[in-house]
Amino acid sequence: MNQGLLAVLAFIGAVAALFVVVLAALGTYDAVSGSDVRDDMGDMMDSMDGMMSSGGPQTTGSASGRGEVKIESFRFQPTTLNVTRGTVVVWTNDDSAPHTATAKEGSFDTGRLDKGESGQVTFDMPGTFDYTCSFHSRMNGRVVVGP
To answer: What does the CA dihedral 29, 32, 35, 37 come to, rounded to 10 degrees?
Structure first.
């Protein structure tokens, strides 16, 4: 056989063996750590999102009847919205990434909002409702419903 062909085959074999070793190492990590590499990578991405969004100022707004929250630059604007009972709050995603507005205690969820989409929730009960984006856990907001 030609020496050049043997060298190419040896190189391909070495790359394939390295690939198998890396896959085995990832599988071992998943089994031993009780964690999932994809989850760990998602946490890393959330941290990066947090770096992008955590530097901005906290903003406050108020509304009665209808309130609006814009989602832009991986932030909810305003970050805190004070409303009266019965107010409909509308979240509109102006980011290219999908987002949600999901209550931390589970009372509401807009579902996935792609760019240009909106979701709404009516707030009939007084209280403070902290929420987050289920895709980007560092994105947080609050709706405060007065008596």
So the answer is: 10
